[in-house]
Amino acid sequence: MRKILGLLLIAVPLFTQGQTDARPDDLLKSDFHKQKRAELRAKMPDNSVAIFFANAIRNRANDVDFLYHQDPNFYYLTGHKEPHAVLLVFKDKQEVNNERFDEVIFVRGHDALRELYDGPRLGKDGAEKTLDIEVNFENPSFKGFNLDFSKFDKVLFYDFQNDVRNTEEEGDLFDLIEQFKQKAGYKQGDLAIEPQKNNLDVVSLDTLMRELRGIKTKEELDLVRKAVDISTIGQREVMKAMRPGMSEAEIQGIHEFVFKKYGAEFEGYPSIVGAGNHGCILHYIDNYKPAIEDGELILMDLGAEYHGYTADVTRTVPVNGKFTKEQKLIYDLVYEAQQAAADTCKAGLPFPVLYETTAKIVNEGLVELGLYESLKDEDIINPETGRNRYYPHGCCHHIGLDVHDKGLYGTLEENMTITIEPGIYISNGSPADKKWWDIPVRIEDDYLITKDGCILLSDKAPRKSDEIEKLMKEPSIFSDYRLPELKAGE
Ligand code: GLY
Ligand code: MN
Ligand code: MN
After folding, report:
1. pLDDT computed for residue 163 by the predictor
2. Is the domain of 463 the same as that of 342?
3. Among 81, 84, 219, 311, which one has the highest count of C-beta atoms within 10 angstroms of its own C-beta?
C-alpha cells in the first residue's frame, strides 16, 4: 500500500501536467522521419525488407526501471519515443491483410491504468495523427500479420541482444521479437557465426544506417548546435564556479542544472568529472571525490542531449584557476595536437589522418619533455594494454543521436559532425618522473565538416590555457548560495 501511495504522489502531478503542457516546437517533424524512411528505401537492395525494433526497457532494481531512451535508429526513422514497437520498411509495396503499403508500424495500445501511472500513450489513433507512417497497427495484431518473409531476397535487421524481458502485456517487445523470429525462420545463434544466412542479414543494415545518419541535415544540425551551445555554456558556468573543496558530483550537478535550464532533457552519456588521478580513468563516471584538492586538474567530459542529439565536450581545468608549470606544458601540447588536426579537417580527408596528426604531435612533444625516451614502439606502447602509454584512445568519432554516432570512417564528408579529442593521461605510478603524476588532460571539441574546412561548434567554452585561467577569475552565480549543514543524528 505504501508503495502505491508513493507512486500516486508521483503520478498525479505528471498526469495533470500532461493536460496543460505544450511540447517543445523544435522537435524533428514527421516530414523529416518520412524523408529518412524514403532515403533508406532507396538504398535498400531489390526485393528486401528492413525491420527495426524499439529499444528495450531496462530494469534498474526491483520494480524501478531506468529512464527510457528510444533506440536512435528507431527514433530517426519514426520520431516515436515509446517502447514496445516495431517498424517494417519495404523496398516495394506489399499486399498484406488486403492492404498495400511500403511501410508499417506496430505500436502499444492504450491502457487506462498504465497511462494513469506513466502518462499518455500514442496508441494507433495518436500514431496515425502524428507519425505519418503509411499503416499503423497495435502490437497484438503483429502475430496475425500475414507476411511471408521467405519471399524476400533480403530480410535486413540488427541481431538481437539477450536483454529483453517478457512482460504480461500482450504484444510487448519480447513477443514482437519472438513472433518476428518465428515468421522469418530465425534461430538464435545462427547468425552469430554466419551473419548472412539464407535471406537473413544482420550486417548490411548497419552500413545503410551509417551512410544515412553520418551526414546531418539542416534540421539535425540545428539540434546538434543547440546541444553543443547548451553544453558549453554549462562548461563556462562550471569553470567560473570551480574552487578547491568542491566535490566532483557538485560540478556534475552544476552542469546538469544549466543544461536542464536550457531545455536539454538528458546527459548524452554519463558525465565524467575526474579530479587528479581520477581523470586518468578514461570513462570515470563514479564522480565520488568529496573535496577536490588545491592544485589538482579536473577533467570534465560533459555533453547534454537536446531533443535526441548530443554534444560531447571535454574541458580540463586547474581547480584553483591556475595551471602549474607541468600541467600547462601538457595542456598546451594537447591543445597544439587538437588544433593541428582541426586545421587539416575538411571534406575529402581520410578519417585516420586526424588521429595520426594528433599522435605525431603528442608523441614528439612527450619525447621532448622526456616522458618518452624515443619514438620507437617499445618506448611508447604500454605492453600491458597494447596502447600508446599516455595517449591510449582514438581521437575522433561522429556525434548525433548517439554520442558515438552512426557514420562511416573512410573519408570526411560535408555535414558530418565529429569530435576531435586528443588526450594525455599521466597517472600516479606511471614510469614518468613524479612531477608529472596525476596530470590528465583531454580537450574535446565538436566540429562540422565543410567543403573547405571545419567549423568549431563548441567555441562557447574556452580551449586555450590562458583563456581558461581568465574565465575562471570571473564571478559565478553559484558562489553565494548556502545550504544548511547536514549533521548526523539530528
Ligand atoms: N564522452 C565519451 C567520449 O568522449 O567518447
Ligand atoms: Mn568523444
Ligand atoms: Mn567525451
Report:
1. 86
2. yes
3. 311
Cβ contacts of 41 within 8 Å, gap of 6 or more: 89, 90, 91, 102, 103
Question: Same domain for 339 and 202?
Answer: no
Q: Are residues 262 and 146 in the same domain?
A: no
- 235 in the same domain as 205: no
- Is 450 inside any structural domain? yes
pLDDT at residue 3 in the model: 42
Q: Whose CA is nearest to atom 5 of ligand 1?
A: 404
Contacts of 88 (CB under 8 A, 6+ apart): 49, 50, 51, 103, 104, 105, 147
Does some domain include residue 110? yes
Please state, as a whole number, how many other Cβ atoms lie within 10 Å of the Cβ of residue 316.
26
Q: Which of 162, 178, 213 is the last residue of a domain?
A: 213
Q: Give the amino acid at 202.
A: V
Q: By C-alpha distance, which of 417, 374, 426 is closest to 399?
A: 417
Give the pLDDT of residue 102.
96
Q: How far is the CA of 66 from the centre of ligand 1 (A)?
A: 21
What whole-number distance in Å separates Cα of residue 214 and Cα of residue 341? 20
Are the beta carbons of 358 and 335 closer than 8 angstroms?
no
Residue 180, φ and ψ in degrees, nearest 5: -60, -45
Pairing of strands 304-306, 313-318: unpaired
The domain of 136 spans 16-213
Report the predicted TM-score, pTM, of the whole model to 2 decimal places.
0.94
Same domain (yes/no): 226, 345: yes
456 and 356 in one domain?
Answer: yes
Pocket test for ligand 1, best of 267, 281, 314 (most atoms within 8 A of CB): 314
Regions of the chain where pLDDT drops below 50: 1-20
The last residue of one of the domains, among 190, 213, 236, is 213
Q: What is the pLDDT of residue 24?
A: 83
Question: Angle between the 30-43 and 204-213 helix axes, to the nearest 10 degrees?
Answer: 130
- What span, in angstroms and rounded, lies between the C-alpha atoms of 148 and 369? 66
The CATH number of the domain holding residue 347 is 3.90.230.10
**What is the Rg, in whole angstroms, of the alpha carbon atoms belonging to the chain?**
25
Q: Note whether 120 and 185 are same-domain residues.
A: yes
**In angstroms, what is the span from residue 314 Cα to ligand 3's centroid?**
6
- What pLDDT does residue 21 have? 57
Distances from the Cα of 453 to the Cαs of 4, 36, 89, 346, in angstroms?
Answer: 57, 27, 36, 4
Shared-domain flag, residues 331 and 376 = yes
DSSP strand pairing (304-306 vs 309-310): antiparallel
| Closest ligand 1 atom, residue 283 Cα | 2
Give me the number of domains the chain comprises.
2
pLDDT value at residue 125? 93
Cα of 346 to ligand 2 centre, how many Å?
19
At 118 the pLDDT is 94
The one-letter amino acid at 429: G
DSSP state of 39: H
Which atom of ligand 1 is nearest to 269's Cα? 1
Domain-located, residue 85 = yes
